[in-house]
Amino acid sequence: MAMGVASIILLPILIAIAGFIGASIVFVIWKLMGSQESYETAFRCMAYISVLTPITSVLGLIPYLGS
User: How far, in Å, CA of 53 to CA of 61, rounded?
Assistant: First the structure.
């Protein structure tokens, strides 16, 4: 029971931290390539792409339609 409650509290926090880390990696890559975009743009792009994760996971289960 305690692990379930802890996961309900910790999981959103860990997902938010992972989002910020992923956006910072994209931001650094963009800066190395000479982009003038802000960190906010990198974070928005990562947020938009993360919506597609469940769809790609389901398609990966179907042979010849996945990645």
Answer: 13
